[in-house]
Design a protein that fits this description.
The chain is α+β, with helices and mostly antiparallel strands. It has 12 helices and 14 strands. The strands form 3 sheets. Strands 1, 2, 8, 9, 10 and 11 form a 6-stranded antiparallel beta sheet that branches.
Length: about 325
């Protein structure tokens, strides 16, 4: 479809939460997505008594995962996972296309308290380790996974490194999370926003692959610099002007935000996609996981004649009678 088939209009003022909006900036050969999360993020965070810094970090991870996972064109899952040596040593966000998301964080309360003034620094919360992004399209398609190192930076930095290293697509990401304190002692709520732009020129040769550090070059070796396309430089500069408040402002619509950024170049927006906090756990799935354990492992899970499994994502508990989990053949193996 050519540009003349699109209708020019003013940006809509209505701000709708829990939506992803794809967009194109034809003049800059840039495509992107903007996400605004409200009640869905609250629902994800409500299952665990996370401290505020952990909620903020997990909110960033959810926004980033939704930005990336919502690009899947077919049914599948996009999973973001970190394993690090920081106070928050594990983050898992699971996005099931086209719109379901769930998330979990594991943290050390004592180490978190010891951070004091650095508790809002996502790099300090994560520490060092790695971030993995996995695309799972079902049993008939091989999984794709990209892994990047976390070296004291935040999730924005990790996303940029992922695209440089794994996709080699020039990409810029902005993430923001904020707690909305309500008057009168009412429970606060959480909001998250994210914006991603990617440079995808239609003309060949405009994207020059960046030479990655080989890791074994002699100390002091200067790697050649790659000149960036002027259009991409402009797009990055515009995205760099976004303030955190603009990404989480409940009164600012996604269309108005995009218009603020790109009105001089013109921006095309497409139908939004709804996002919902929904866990995919079920009694059947939990039973399948238990069935994958060995006989001795299953027998060790039995307490007071039953096995209880709690989903780390949503907190729902599933209870099984011992005979449902430990069959006669398992008891025989255990007796031997």
């Amino acid at each position: 479809m050519t540009a003349e088939h699109f209708t020019a209009r003013s940006p809509r003022a209505d701000a709708i939460d829990d939506r992803v909006m794809p967009f194109h900036i034809d003049a800059l050969d840039v495509r992107g997505r903007v996400v605004r999360l409200g009640p869905s993020l609250d629902a994800v965070l409500a299952h665990h008594a996370y401290p505020a810094p952990v909620k903020r970090l997990l909110g960033e991870a959810v926004a980033l995962t939704v930005l990336l996972g919502s690009t899947l064109k077919i049914a599948g899952r996009f999973i973001l996972q970190t394993r690090t040596d920081g106070p928050v040593d594990l983050l898992v966000v699971d996005f099931s296309a086209p719109h379901d998301v769930r998330a979990y964080a594991r943290f050390d309360a004592e180490r978190l308290a010891a951070l004091n003034g650095k508790a809002h620094d996502s790099g300090a919360l994560l520490g060092r380790g790695h971030l993995a992004m996995t695309i799972d399209q079902g049993v008939h398609v091989n999984r794709y996974q990209g892994v990047v190192a976390l070296e004291g930076g935040g999730l924005e930095d990790a996303a940029h490194q992922y695209f440089r290293q794994s996709e080699q697509i020039p990409t810029r990401v902005r993430l923001a999370v904020a707690e909305e304190v309500r008057p009168g002692g009412a429970a606060s709520s959480w909001r998250a926003g994210g914006l991603m732009v990617q440079f995808l020129p239609t003309e060949g040769g405009r994207v020059t692959p960046v030479d990655l550090d080989p890791g074994d070059a002699p100390e002091g070796t200067v790697l050649p610099e790659t000149a960036e396309d002027d259009a991409w430089v402009e797009a990055q500069s515009l995205v760099g002007t976004i303030e955190d408040l603009e990404l989480v402002d409940a009164e600012l619509s996604s269309e108005r935000l995009l218009y603020r950024l790109f009105h001089e170049r013109g921006v095309r927006v497409f139908d939004t996609e709804a996002i919902a906090a929904r866990c995919s756990c079920s009694r059947e799935r939990v039973m399948n996981v238990l069935a994958s354990f060995g006989p001795e492992e299953r027998a060790d899970l039995v307490e007071d004649g039953k096995v209880t499994v709690t989903c780390e994502f949503c907190g729902r508990s599933y209870e099984f009678k011992a005979e449902e989990v430990v069959g006669p053949e398992d008891k025989g193996a255990d007796a031997q």
